[in-house]
Design goal:
Elements: H1 2-12, E1 19-22, H2 28-32, E2 38-40, E3 58-64, E4 67-72, H3 78-81, H4 88-96, E5 101-110, E6 120-127, H5 153-165, E7 171-177, H6 186-195, E8 199-201, H7 205-213, E9 217-227, H8 238-262
Parallel strand pairs: 1-4, 1-5, 5-9, 6-7, 7-8
Antiparallel strand pairs: 2-3, 3-4, 5-8, 6-9
Length: 264
C-alpha cells in the first residue's frame, strides 16, 4: 500500500480525497470528467487486474463537482480470478487517502417488473448468496464485521435527495450476489425472488464487506440493464449489458454529480 500511495502522491498530490467511487459498466466516461490524472492500475502495487471489457482500469484523482474524489474506473470481479478480496488493496489505499465514504455502482438484472431496463435501484441491503467472503483469512478480530445497515441509511437518504432534485425515480431494493460469469438460470431467479431479492449481479457485495471492514460509509446503486432470466423474452449477454448500461448511466451520473455538488 505504501508504494501505491507514493506513486499516487507523486502524480496527484497529497491532498485528502472526500470519497471514492467505483464505476460499473457504462459509467467509464464519468471517470474522464475528473479534473486530475488517470493512473493505470498496472502502475499501482496491490491494485486489481480488472480485465473485463467495457471497464476502464485507471484510478482518477481530482476535482468533480467541487469535491476531491478518487474514482476507480474498474473493479476486479470474483469470476476473473476466484479472489473475493481482489479489491482489498485498492480500498485500503482509498482509506489511506483520507476518504470516509464509498459509492459503488454496477450493472444488474431486475427481478421486479416495476424496475425495468434503464431504471436505477439503490441498494437497501444485499444477499451474499455465494457465501464467499473477502475477509476469510484475516487474522484479527476485526474480521467479525457487523453488517446491519451496511448500506448507510444516511448516505442513501442523501442520494435519494439528489435523485429527487434531478427528477429521477430511484427505487430501493435488495441485491443478490451471484459469482458469475455465467448468467443465472430461470430456476435460480425464482429462488432468489423467494428469498427476497429485487436485483441480481456479479459484483459489489465483496466491496461492501471490505468497506465496512475499513470503516468506510457505503452506498451502492445498480443500473438495470436487463430483466433476469425468465422475466422477459430478451436475450441476456454481456454485449447486451454493455449496450443497455448507458440508458441508466446517464441518470446515475446526474444523481452522483448532484450529490457531490450538495456536499459541504
Amino acid at each position: 500500500m505504501q508504494e501505491a500511495l507514493k506513486k499516487i502522491h507523486e502524480r496527484a498530490g497529497d491532498a485528502p480525497v472526500k470519497l471514492g467511487l467505483i464505476l460499473g459498466s457504462g459509467l467509464g466516461h464519468l471517470a474522464h470528467a475528473v479534473e486530475g490524472p488517470a493512473i493505470p492500475y498496472a502502475d499501482l502495487p496491490g491494485f486489481p487486474h480488472a480485465g473485463v471489457s467495457g471497464h476502464n482500469p485507471h484510478l482518477h484523482i481530482g476535482q468533480l463537482e467541487g469535491q476531491r474524489v478518487a474514482v476507480f474506473g474498474a473493479r476486479e470481479h470474483y469470476y476473473e480470478n476466484g479472489n473475493p478480496a481482489a479489491m482489498r488493496g485498492a480500498l485500503e489505499v482509498l482509506k489511506a487517502l483520507g476518504a470516509e465514504r464509498l459509492i459503488l455502482t454496477n450493472a444488474a438484472g431486475s427481478l421486479r417488473q416495476d424496475i425495468p431496463p434503464g431504471d436505477l435501484m439503490l441498494l437497501s441491503d444485499h444477499i451474499n448468496y455465494n457465501g464467499l467472503n473477502p475477509l476469510i483469512g484475516e487474522k484479527t478480530d476485526a474480521r467479525f464485521v457487523p453488517m446491519t445497515d451496511a448500506h448507510s441509511p444516511a448516505l442513501r437518504a442523501a442520494l435519494q435527495s439528489a435523485a429527487k432534485a434531478e427528477g429521477i425515480a430511484l427505487q430501493e431494493g435488495v441485491y443478490a450476489w451471484y459469482s458469475g460469469p455465467s448468467f443465472e438460470t430461470k430456476a435460480e431467479i425464482r429462488m432468489l425472488k423467494t428469498l427476497g431479492a429485487d436485483a441480481v449481479g456479479m459484483s459489489t457485495v465483496p466491496e461492501v464487506i471490505l468497506a465496512r471492514f475499513l470503516d468506510l460509509e457505503v452506498a451502492a446503486i445498480s443500473t438495470v440493464t436487463n430483466m433476469a432470466a425468465g422475466m422477459s423474452d430478451e436475450q441476456i449477454s454481456h454485449e447486451h449489458t454493455k449496450a443497455m448500461a448507458p440508458l441508466g448511466a446517464a441518470k446515475l451520473e446526474r444523481i452522483l454529480r448532484r450529490y457531490l455538488a450538495n456536499l459541504p
